[in-house]
Amino acid sequence: MGTASGDDDRHHGVAERVNLSARRPFAEALRSGLAETFFPDDPFRGFGALPPGARAWGALKYFVPALEWAPRYSLDKFKYDLLAGITIASLAIPQGISYARLANLPPIIGLYSSFVPPLLYAVFGSSNNLAVGTVAAASLMLASIIEDEVLPEDDPERYLQLFYTSAFFTGIFQTALGVFRLGLIVDFLSRSTITGFMGGTAMIIIMQQLKGLLGMKHFTPKTDLISVVGSVFHYRHEWKWQSAVLGICFILFLLSSKHLRKKMPNLFWVSAIAPFMVVIIGGVFAFLVKGDEHGIPIVGDLKKGINPISISQLRFDTKNAEIAVKAGLMSGILALAEGIAVGRSLAMIKNEQIDGNKEMIAFGMMNIVGSFTSCYLTTGPFSKSAVNFHAGCKTPMSNVVMSVCILLVLLFLAPLFKYTPLVALSSIIVVAMIGLIKVKEFVHLYKIDKFDFCICMVAFVGVVFFTMVIGLSASVGLSVLRALLYVARPATCKLGSISGTEIFRDTKQYPHAKSVPNILVLQLGSPIYFVNAGYLRERILRWVEDEENICKGHGQDLQYLILDLGGVTSIDNTGIGMLGEVHKGLDRKGIRLALTNPRLQVTEKLVLSGYIKDTIGEESVFLTVKDAITSCRYALERSASKEGGNQV
pLDDT by residue (tens digit) across 348-392? Predict the structure, then answer.
């Protein structure tokens, strides 16, 4: 390619060369890297031009979103939020009681958990659509982890204390993630993992509800399918046909209301209040026929009054803290993934934005304060949030309305729910869980990406046949392994020219793309690190060997290798060493190396290491593939003309 780059430029029309003199001070590079990692949304942009007081107020509004929307709140918005709040309250009552029972907690705890946390979310949450409450998956996960340490029948007080303590650690963990901008941890729960995990969890929850549907008193504390099915038949002498018949009726009613919502979307409120109607109808029926005496077990007494303070019940001694931390972290990550995913999906429909880190802080504050006020883990459940969305909510005020409704229930109506049949709660849970087994999504994953399907199935099978922790951990592990394989074995491709254009594309994707005689163009599409440097060296040299054989078949020699580095976002010292080794290997074969379109982060290190100046030369670095090929062709023509002149 010559040493007189200026002459080359004038001959073959290279108008612009790569800027190799650009430098960034270390402090600036470090600050930029940290900002992109932890503040990709740049939440405080524009603050620098404001006076100190305005900056402080802006920062406060960032962490307390209610200060942003509350001053602009109007009566017109309240009309919508009032309707939405009452609607989700009618769903929160049966769900709160049901999910508390699922976690083997006193039913009143479910109502407590629907009172305080929504108030906190209204202050700190950034989503206008999210409705706060307990969720089935996290309830069952907490129960399965804590029951490994203590059973509710053996020590109900310690069992409840571990739930409170777990909620506290969940809140600390979630708040820390939000404050330190570590939401990327939640990204390790891929959509495939969540789909499989939720489907498997729904399956075992449905199976566990056979206890309530059949009126059984004894049941296994284990969650795997084999243990659950074995327990159902082991205690078959406890089956109550009365509960089974009533349960089938409730399930058919709930499924009919869901079908009606699909056929007539404007009647969404029917399916929203259907669970509450099941509780009311079931309670009246059980009261009239004295169901607890005729094979229809009931919830039992519910204390009247607001949440008692539970700070004194938190247990931080080694024996309790270890299991509480494990339960809190596992369920906290799951709750974050579900809550943030629900909030984002609903916000997209309204073309709104929510801040994942704000949501983490909001969830964290909910669970910290909740653990002080007799609540267990809460997040943003999909079913309740979807009802809130369809009911026309405008702001988080709908959560406040729901909380006020729950307050009235706790103060005046709680004892009335003592006659609620357990079979009614089981029916509500079963119908809610059916929607989480997304068979169409499984089929879609199988068609689109077999590896994603495997990740999904590992979570599903792990949860169903082993434990929730094993299923989730195995699926996340497989997802991380896949990501590591992408890093360790990055894709490379050979580029060819598209006829009639100056575009170069992958010859496998575009078979009609033509190779350039005597020149091999390769594209590297990932960072070059120690973990993949060896593989890339071997892969590049293998490409070169294959191309040499092709050239020899046409009576030609391979003389140039062009590496397109546009997709290489960074490089480390091992990567630079690898490029040096490639250069030496090519030099022994008489092949010249050229680089095109290296990014700033790459050119900085290549220049500082001396690779460009001392190894390949600045004249071998080009802005585009076309420029590099033009220069190579010019050098080949000049070499051919010299050889012709020497022969003469």
Answer: 888 888 888 889 999 999 999 999 999 999 999 988 898 899 888
Q: In whole angstroms, give the CA distance from residue 592 to residue 114.
A: 70
Angle at 386 between CA 383 and CA 390, to 5 degrees: 140
Say how far apart CA 514 and CA 587 lie, in whole Å.
Answer: 26
Q: Which residue, 233, 104, 225, is CA-closest to 156?
A: 104
Q: What is the DSSP annotation of 61-120?
A: HHH-THHHHGGG--HHHHHHHHHHHHHHHHHHHHHHHHHHHHTT--HHHHHHTTTHHHHH
Backbone angles phi, psi at 190, to 5 degrees: -70, 165
Rounded Cα gap, residues 360 and 183, in angstroms: 8
Tokens (6 digits) for 156: 């109900």
Burial class (CB in 10 A: 0-12, 13-18, 19+), 568: buried
Q: What is the 3-state secondary structure (H, E, C) of 242-292?
A: HHHHHHHHHHHHHHHHHHHHHHCHHHHHHHHHHHHHHHHHHHHHHHHHCHH
pTM beyond 0.90:
no
Task: Provide the β-strand partners of residue 492.
Answer: 524
Spatial neighbors of 320 by CB under 8 A, at least 6 apart, are 158, 161, 162, 165
In terms of pLDDT, which residue wins out, 158 or 182?
158
